[in-house]
Amino acid sequence: MDPTGAAAICYDRTLPIELEEEARRVAAQENPENDVDPTIDVNDPNIEPEKRIALIARKRWRPGKLLKIRFLDGSPTMRVKVVQYATEWTRHANIRFEFGDSPYAEIRISFYADRGSWSALGTDALVQRTFPINQPTMNFGWLRDDTSEEECSRVVLHEFGHALGAIHEHQNPRGGIVWDEEAVYRYFSGPPNYWNREQIRYNVLEKYSEDILLGTEFDPESIMLYSFPASLTRGGPRFVKSNTRLSQRDIDFIKVAYPR
Q1: In this structure, are residues 203 and 196 in contact, taking their beta carbons and an 8 Å threshold?
Q2: What CATH number has the domain bearing residue 102?
Q3: Would you say residue 214 has pLDDT above 60?
């Protein structure tokens, strides 16, 4: 949280277009289901069709995967907080986290790579031309020893959602948000983000294409949705409360995305 009271939001770490073919290849090697058209069984008794977080369909880890996670820096207190909140995902998804010193860790965490918060999206972490093996795939640029528990929960759960393939809910095409675009540009060009217009359009205003998503129903309680001042919108829903826990829809859908 910025001293002015403005909530910082993370930005997407997408791959250059020339690496998309490599990304598809490594994603299919990791999980063969990434190489087929995404479908979901709406008759699955474990989930109702509307209870879905938007997930990039072809960047999922293999269900049952043991993801090795290594801290590249950060204090003992900061590391403990990340472990504490990140493991919440593993209670619901068929995925396991192993925090240690493996030189081959798929997820590599920094707190000082830059001042932003971000993560590779799912199996994109395996594309070493963007994420070299000795560099971070995730960053918590504003988490420190004295960061509040609510903020730690909000940011850690959110970034690990990205690491499992989940997208920003405010860019879900079913969200219905009508932005005041000039107000958005003014707001995010200042602290704590300091983004240029291209970054703002890419990370806030643009919507994902439905044909790359697994599940498109919008969830206003999702951990993948950040809060925004009401002054940034002209119509549609407004989200002024920060979500700091997994929503029931987050939980329901991640169970289907990573089935046991």
Answers
A1: no
A2: 3.40.390.10
A3: no
Q: How many domains does the chain have?
A: 1
Count Cα neighbours of 237 within 13 Å in the Cβ-side half-sphere. Answer: 16
Cα–Cα distance measured from residue 47 to residue 35, given in angstroms and rounded to the nearest whole number: 23
Q: Rounded to two decimals, what is the model's pTM?
A: 0.78
Does a structural domain hold residue 40?
no
In a domain, 202, yes or no: yes
Residue range of the domain that includes 121: 17-35+53-257
Q: How far is CA 151 from CA 70, 109, 154, in A?
A: 22, 17, 5
Look at residue 47 and tell me if it is in a domain.
no
Q: Are 138 and 98 in contact (CB under 8 A)?
A: no
Measured between alpha carbons, how far is 78 from 146 in angstroms, rounded to an integer?
A: 9
Which pLDDT belongs to residue 64?
96
Share of the chain above pLDDT 90, in %: 43
pLDDT of 43 higher than 60 = no
For residues 120-159, b (16+ Cβ closer than 10 Å) or e, as one string? bbbbbbbbeebbeeeebbbbbbbbeeebeeebbbbbbbbb
What is the token pair recorded at 54?
């938007």
